[in-house]
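Entry:
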Amino acid sequence: MILNLLWDRKEPVPSREMLQYIKDTTGEEMKKQTLNNFLTRLLDKDMIRRISVERRYMYEPLISREEYQQGLAEDFINKSFDGSFRNFVCSLSGGEKISKEEAEEIMKLLRS
């Protein structure tokens, strides 16, 4: 949720605005300490950067939405399919043989 806000805003965002965004989006308030803990984890993973502007911290992403999604997909394949992309693709067919057209479409996707 926080990363989505940072990606969508395309400019540094203060934690105060993040807290308001969470309240507006979920209808629930998040404690500042909880948000700070979450931001610290993102900082430790080099996913965001903290900058100081006029004596307040602002945050911006260091990775793109696409890079994040690619990392999630790689983690999923590594954990669920022993890192085998082939096994992942085979599981999508439900164990059934895919048509030649489907195989060609998959090959086009892989080449792009």
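The mean pLDDT is 92.
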